[in-house]
Amino acid sequence: MPSPIERANERPLPPVPRLIFASRWLQLPLYVGLILAQCVYVYHFWVELVHLIGAAMGDAGSVADIFRAIGYAAPADGPPKLNETVIMLVVLGLIDVVMISNLLIMVIIGGYETFVSRMNLEGHPDQPEWLSHVNASVLKVKLATAIIGISSIHLLKTFINAANYDNKTLIAQTGIHIAFLLSAMAIAATDRILFGSARPAADSGH
Known about the structure:
Blueprint: H1 4-10, H2 15-22, H3 28-56, H4 60-70, H5 84-115, H6 136-160, H7 167-195, H8 198-204
Helix pairs in contact: 3-4, 3-5, 5-6, 6-7
């Protein structure tokens, strides 16, 4: 005997609910756009990496490009030279690109799986571990955590290069980071309050 879910799947949807349900595919161009944005980040990563390698090899043009990109003040007594602080700022910029890329992947895969259609990755060796239990609530918490990580990298870059920023910028970036942190804590607390009692009950049924 077919289960209630199987009987519901066999019953055709009326035209209006079918149209409303099919409208989820309008999000597909948005995720394709994020994939293109991912390509832009990959290109930007390699441009910055080529500049760093060129600067390490002594190319003056690459050194000037790096100083311009990170907003680091060139010395007044001669041409800009690569030093440990500049290298650290460039590497942090590369890490920042990677973290934003990870955030994009999380949004693309998790959002598509949650709001558009199943990807049927069960059993695939490369299935992300977090995808097996992702939902809209879990996705929000993970995105908030990723944003905090990105904000931490930006704040660290600012503190390392603090001499080239005024006090208002330092205070503003610190305040924004704290706001992100408090927002993530509020999202996680709300998720625990709304769904924390339901999850143990669901887990106990397995």
